[in-house]
Amino acid sequence: MLVSLAVATPGDASGIAALHATVARHLTAEFGEGHWSRAPSERAVIAELRRSTVYFARGAEKVIATLALSTRKPWAIDKTYFRPAERPLYLTSMAIEPSLQRQGIGRRCMEEAVKTARSWPADAIRLDAYDAPAGAGGFYARCGFREMGRVVYRKTPLIYYELAV
Questions:
Q1: Cα distance between residue 162 and residue 140, in whole Å
Q2: How far apart are CA 80 and CA 157, in angstroms?
Q3: Sheet holding 156-164, edge to edge
Q4: CB 3.0–4.6 Å: which of 52, 60, 61, 164 could bond 68 by disulfide?
Q5: 96-120 pLDDT, tens per residue?
Q6: In which element (H, E) is residue 7 found?
């Protein structure tokens, strides 16, 4: 499936929040209750638009993929685990419609994120993933990200990943 990411506006927030809610319900059904069970509200997505550049892909009738890139370090990231970088970007809030997962959409989103980072310009993309069966760490590793460390932040086990761009 061809995926093209667009920059989100406040008018896209409800569709993005709906996708996050769908993914949260799916992960909870598959892996049980966890940090992944919470989905942002439309208002929270609008707030994220002020802190990050939020990208999304739309299918025929709804948002099917989203991610955010920001120069602002997320609260759960400890920079000491990463290699020195002058202009890192932080990838957060990635979600893919569960019925469309394992069809290359996530990989295509990551390719677009790397392309965007190179033109930003940035020298690294950093992120965290849940260190749990519901986490996407294996996906990020398959996309070329290197594991940088494992931590527990506010009782949530995380794996840090980085990709030099």
A1: 9
A2: 17
A3: 6-7, 53-58, 63-70, 88-96, 124-130, 156-164, 146-153
A4: 52
A5: 999 999 999 999 999 999 999 999 9
A6: strand 6-7
> Which one, of 81, 79, 80, 77, lies nearest residue 149 by Cα?
81
Q: How far is Cα of residue 123 from the mean position of the Cα atoms in its chain?
A: 18
Count other C-beta atoms under 10 Å from residue 1's C-beta: 11
Which ranges constitute the DSSP H helices of the chain?
13-31, 42-51, 105-119, 137-142
pLDDT digits (tens, 9 = 90+) for 67-90: 999 999 998 999 999 999 999 999
Note if the pTM is more than 0.90.
Answer: yes
Six-digit token pair at 150?
Answer: 């494992």
Instruction: Give all domains of the chain, ordered by start, each with its CATH number.
Output: 6-164 (3.40.630.30)
Under 8 Å between Cβ of 135 and 60:
no
Cβ atoms of 128 and 145 within 8 Å: the answer is: no
For residue 28, give both structure tokens: 């909870």
- Provide the 10 A C-beta neighbour count for residue 138: 10
